[in-house]
Design goal:
Helix content is 24%, strand content 25%. The chain has 459 residues and is α/β, with parallel strands linked by helices. The strands form four sheets. A nine-stranded mixed β-sheet has the order 6-5-7-8-4-9-10-11-12, with helices on both faces. A seven-stranded mixed β-sheet has the order 15-16-14-13-17-20-21. It has a three-stranded antiparallel β-sheet with strand order 2-1-3, with no helix packed on it. The termini are far apart. Belongs to the RecA family. RadA subfamily.
Length: 459
Amino acid sequence: MAKPKSSYRCTGCGHQVAKWVGRCPECSEWGSIDEVAGAPTSSRTTAAVAPSSPALRITEVDAQSTAAVPTGIGELDRVLGRGVVPGSVILLAGEPGVGKSTLLLETVKHWAAQDRVALYITGEESAGQVRMRAERTGAVHANVYLAAETDLATILGHVDTVRPSLMIIDSVQTVVASGADGVTGGVTQIRAVTTALVSLAKDRGIAVILVGHVTKEGAVAGPRSLEHLVDVVLAFEGDKHSTLRMVRGVKNRFGAADEVGCFEQRDDGIHQVPDPSGIFLHQRDSDVSGSVTMVTMDGKRALVGEVQALANGTEMSNPRRAVSGLDFNRVAMVLAVLQARAGRKELGKSEVYLSTVGGMRVTEPAADLAIALSVYSTLTQRPVPQSTVVIGEVGLGGEIRRVSAVARRLAEAKRLGFREAIIPAATDEELPKGIRILRVANLGDAVHLRDSDPVDAPF
């Protein structure tokens, strides 16, 4: 048997180094490097051990024991994949103040209303503070048990006493495992706590939802192995200037990982928004130049939104470009193509302002054509009709490239009452009936639709 070799590990971030140093090279923490004894290595193979239960044929495994249980919140069930699976561990991560605790209080209220027991563990607030918020949002129910604990062993004792079918841990960074080294919220502690909770969930069939913090870059705080240990990872997103909140699936072992749930934060709590497209549209009585309606895909969900453009002439040698809700680099490329391929030379001497409506954020290329037509519309003062939606990616050569899920986008536009759509000519999907289709192959065709089709055309 080989002699065990010691290593040195940071108790704050878990980074390993070959020899002791005073400051961790990864997290720059002083005095956090501790020696960790290595396990002895052996060249012999591991001896076989008799299993506690025999392996079953896959046809003999009871699938009903892990059937998803609806939470009662349709938008959350949509992202989870029909509901919460017993024995699963879900990680919900988001920025401070976005509404994670409010959403989970709403979840346990609906869960308890179905004659199920829920246990809410809070490590960041007192029980009285959580009760006060629950009264404000109407989330008080007799089947919801509340405990303010940070010790893992005590939490397991609450589970033995209450025997819940759903447990919330708010948050996993505040829970301490007495048998693990490291500071509270450190890599070692988070890994030990999560491993214990995953084992608890699998052994007793309890669904566990962990609240996680995020870094300033927006990633889940803690070790990367945290996301590997859990079954589902959800990102809770929202803008402090908007009431709209999005629950986005990042990882899901029980359903699609690209679903999106929409919610609205109000004074009396958080409410689901089954039809969010109306939030991203500006209600106006007449056509306005510079405003174009587009249909984007957020995961598998089609969202109808609006992009607005304004262009003003200027004497500055470097005209200003201001963008809100769109990718700045993508907008700069579309403006360059519009100037070179559509003959709009005045863009070189114009300030251009572009914005989406309702705080919508768009990064996909399918919004390129809508951006180009909104700028062209404000330059020519010829509005695009409100009944028209625009879909397409613009290439550097001025060509309009096809995009994915055009049929799904048009179905959503038709449902909202739009009567006309401008799409790429190369689209080969089977499109829904009842909406007029205008196909364009390049940017020149798109901006000169009025010349070729003068009846009810956008230009």
